[in-house]
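User: My advisor, Dr. K., asked me to get a structural model of this assembly before our group meeting. I'm new to this, so sorry if the format is off. These are the inputs:
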Amino acid sequence: MTGPHAAFIIASYAIAFTVIAGLILWTVADWRLTRRALAELEARGGRRRPDGGRT
Amino acid sequence: MGVLTDDDPRATAKPPSAITKRAQRVWSCWPAPTDRTDSMALLSAITSLANPSRFASFADRALPWAAGVTAVLFAAALYLALFVAPPDYQQGETVRIMFIHVPSAWLAMFAYVLMAAASLGVLIWRHPIADVSAKAAAPLGAAFTFLALATGSLWGKPMWGAWWVWDARLTSFLILFLMYLGLMALRSAMEEPSRAAKACAILTLVGSVNIPIIKFSVDWWNTLHQPASVIRAGKPTMDASILIPLLVAALAFTALFTTLHLAGMRTELIRRRLRTLRLTTAARATLSPEPAE
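Assistant: The format is fine. Below is the predicted structure of the whole assembly, which you can bring to the meeting.
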């Protein structure tokens, strides 16, 4: 990856790495935050039905 | 669900002896088909995944495997792209940008086709998972479209002498990026999920006319962009030393998309459950306030 156009190649791979890493981190963070919010609501007694859906 | 038996079509469809216990758990999560013929059994299994909780269970078990396959494929793709593929006789080392640019462009269009199919599921069959799939695919499609545009620009400058030209392929791809952004903005602007689902499904289907325009733009108009060299009538025009790394990279990007899409759908199912619980809790608090002391 040497030569007069090395900067273009390196920049392309750097952008790809950044975008893909960003997607992965965003996906994981979104999953954790949403799951935590659901767990907190359920811990406070939030249920779809008063009996907790057992009937 | 449960233990595979000799009567179960799944027992003959995959050899359990050749896979690990963990893989067996993933496979056994696939709903047991009840019909006799293979095609009907497959249809039955797919249909039963429309159950959100069953789908979430399947995603929980399949995601570690999908992530592992993605990591292995990316390691192979990077090795082939950076150390094995030779420089192109005309473009020199810049051909290595192609191993990111082309799979990104393919996935950008694939994500939109997937969203269009899901939109049909929303509007015609009211499939409970279809809108979840469409919503989860939109940011991924936008990211891959951005990646294709950015790497294309970085490839175009040394090869064409310009960062950007308003030719048919580049312009139609920019429109695809704007479609993704518009769909995400429309969805976030609407409070009611069912209304947002219908509006986004209609807009997605209207925008799907852009996909064949992107594909055939290089044939219909004189453009600076090169014509198709892999997905075309006849065999690919590329040498195997370039084509194989490109196909491995495409597999890696597809595996990444599958993994992130599955994860995004799982999160979206939880988000919808969370919304329902919040509304139910709020309604219950309104209807039966705490008695005064």
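One thing worth pointing out at the meeting: DSSP finds one helix and no strands in chain A.

User: Perfect, thanks a lot.
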